[in-house]
Amino acid sequence: MKANEVHKLSLDEIKVEEARLRRSLYDLRCQAVTEKLENPRQLRNIRRDVARLMTEKQARKAKESA
After folding, report:
1. 3-65, what's its fold?
2. Of 20, 30, 18, 25, whose CA–CA distance to 42 is shortest?
3. Which of 3, 8, 26, 34 is found 20 to 30 A from 57 (Cα to Cα)?
């Protein structure tokens, strides 16, 4: 997910997407412990996507309060 895609999402969609990504990150971590991951870069990519969503959420909150 690119930053320009995140900018287009509504706040509710950001929250839903963040929850979905956090769950998939948890599942991947569990899978990494029990078996070999098919694509180890998935962990990094999902972490970065979560960070993008959190950054956008904080930016909107700061913009709203200003």
Report:
1. Helix Hairpins (1.10.287)
2. 25
3. 26
- Note the Cα 56 to chain centre separation in Å: 11
What distance in Å separates the CA atoms of residue 27 and residue 29, rounded to the nearest whole number?
5
Using CB atoms within 10 Å of the CB of residue 53, give its burial: 0 to 12 exposed, 13 to 18 middle, 19+ buried: buried
Tokens of 2: 């690119």
The domain limits of the chain are: 3-65
Backbone angles phi, psi at 27, to 5 degrees: -60, -40
Residue 35 φ/ψ, nearest 5 degrees: -155, 175
Predicted TM-score of the model (pTM) = 0.90
Tokens, residue 28: 């991947």
3-state secondary structure (DSSP) of residue 28? helix
